[in-house]
Specification:
CATH class of the largest domain: Alpha Beta
Number of strands: 12
Largest sheet: 6 strands, mixed
CATH topology of the largest domain: Cytochrome Bc1 Complex, Chain A, domain 1
Radius of gyration: 28 Å
Structural class: alpha+beta
Strand content: 15-25%
Strand order of the largest sheet: 1-2-6-3-5-4
CATH architecture of the largest domain: 2-Layer Sandwich
Protein name: Peptidase M16 inactive domain
Distance between the termini: 105 Å
Pfam family, one: Peptidase_M16_C
Shape: globular
GO molecular function, one term: metal ion binding
Organism: Cutibacterium granulosum
Number of helices: 17
């Protein structure tokens, strides 16, 4: 008895059906990318003395507004340190037209956000807002600049927040290490030798009256720059900011230069620490030095990339750390080179000795491959570094306060691309004196201090409370 094969099935003896494949397209050719340049910037001055920079960025629908004020931390009265941050954070907690929560509700209705910080070199205020809501956003921003409420209750809450920040810093190993290095790097009279949040004694003296006085004196349009970046930024009407007025004031306070002391270690004792956090600081020349691009490349080769010398030895070869980083940060006057990392307590002293050996230009010079990779990395990340309106506006604001034009960025990257093996080593030898690094360490002093002294370091031990003036 035979059975017919159902129409829906294929007999085992039948050949497999042929699958027709679409013809493959030719593989695309990879070509060298076009040269990157910083976006075009337009400049104008408002009647109140405020400099305005606009940067059209097609497709960037979220507008970034950055207001940089020439109000560095050094502008704070010595007995009111921390008042800059309190003023920034309280400014958006109500205005005369929109008191209390009303201002926040108005901002929320247009999906806008306000931010700001008091920094070593300036005070920065920011507004992010969708492009179609920018006119309303600028009205609210102008309102904040001209009629912020600075209510005593809000000021008191922000002072309490700064006190809490100090308490958190007392338990943060990396923060304590960097602050300890700052204490050695800067003269004791310098604002930068102390915590940006202030101290218990200075915060206790801050009230609404003092904050308003500081706001009236320091938040002035004649010493500021407003940057607007985003889609159609050049079409923005900023007449609303003309109402922000004030008496022109004298030149801002210029920060003191760093000390020239020999290398020292300030050890912050944290008996319960599970690791040793290390921070190194060194004063260097800044953007105006002819070797500045070469210095950036040298720092990247030494510790600025994952394949740098510090990481290759301390992480990959020795296994002492999860990672070590190095950077050079420009200031208004000069720059600061920094190294940071965390190590197991039992090897911290040996790791510090090895770190100083790596940073010593008298040792092996940087190789051509090291320099090429570091330089290509710095040049190659430029398009990503400035791929948002916020990044563009923030960079322009910083450059303006430093007295540099927007074209400086393109010129800097052009010089950076020309850095070679010889100039990178020259910058290392001339500008990174290994004997001048100031060292802050946070960890178990009972274990670390004897090891460090045996390794030849001059060590001073200090408590977190004393470093931060938590006792008031």
């Amino acid at each position: 008895m035979s059975h017919a094969t159902p129409p829906s099935q294929t007999s085992p003896k039948d050949p497999a059906p042929q699958v027709q494949q679409a013809p493959l397209r030719p593989r695309p050719t990879v070509t060298t990318g076009s040269a990157w340049t910083f976006p075009h910037v337009e400049r104008r001055e408002l009647g109140n003395g405020l400099t305005v920079l606009t940067v059209p960025l097609p497709g960037q629908e979220i507008m970034s507004v950055q207001l940089a004020l020439d109000v560095p931390l050094a502008s704070e009265p010595a007995d009111l340190e921390g008042i800059g941050a309190v003023t920034v954070r309280t400014a958006d907690e109500g205005t005369a037209p929109h008191p209390g929560h009303e201002f926040a509700e108005q901002m929320e209705q247009i999906a806008a956000s306000y931010g700001g910080s008091a920094m070593p070199t300036s005070t920065m205020l920011s507004l992010d807002v969708p492009g179609e809501q920018l006119p309303t956003g600028m009205e609210l921003f102008a309102e904040l600049l001209t009629s912020t409420a600075l209510d005593p209750v809000d000021v008191g809450r922000q002072v309490d927040a700064s006190v809490a920040q100090l308490a958190r810093t007392a338990h943060s190993g990396p923060s304590l290490a960097q602050l300890a290095a700052n204490r050695l790097l800067w003269p004791c009279s310098s604002r930068l030798s102390r915590a940006s949040a202030g101290s218990m004694s200075t915060l206790a003296a801050i009230d609404a009256e003092r904050v308003r006085e500081f706001w009236n004196q320091m938040w002035r349009p004649d010493r500021g720059v407003l940057v607007v970046a985003g889609d159609h930024a050049d079409e923005v009407n900023l007449d609303v900011l003309e109402q922000w007025t004030g008496t022109p004031r004298a030149e801002s306070t210029r920060e003191l230069t760093t000390t020239a002391a020999a290398r020292r270690v300030l050890l912050v004792d944290r008996p319960d620490a599970v690791q040793a956090d290390v921070g190194l600081q060194l004063g260097t020349p800044g953007r105006d030095h002819p070797l500045w691009p070469a210095l950036k490349v040298a720092a990247a080769a030494l510790g600025g990339t994952f394949s740098s010398r510090l990481n290759s030895v301390l992480r990959e070869e020795k296994g002492w750390s999860y990672g070590v980083g190095m950077s050079v940060r420009p200031m208004k006057c000069g720059a600061i080179a920094s190294v940071s990392g965390a190590f197991r307590t039992e090897v911290a002293a040996e790791a510090l000795v090895t770190t100083m050996q790596i940073l010593d230009a008298a040792g092996d010079p940087l190789g051509r491959t090291e320099v090429d990779e570091a330089r290509d990395h710095l040049v190659g990340v430029a398009p990503l570094q400035y791929d948002t309106a916020e990044a563009v506006s923030a960079q322009l604001a910083v450059l303006h306060l430093a007295g540099l034009p927007s074209i400086w960025i393109d010129e800097h990257f052009a010089r950076l691309a020309q850095v070679g093996h010889d100039s990178a080593n020259e910058a290392w030898q001339q500008l990174l004196d290994v004997t001048a690094w100031q060292i802050g360490i946070s960890g178990q002093a009972g274990v670390l201090a004897p090891q460090l002294r045996e390794a030849g370091f001059e060590v001073e031990v200090i408590s977190p409370d004393r470093l931060l003036d938590l006792a008031g």
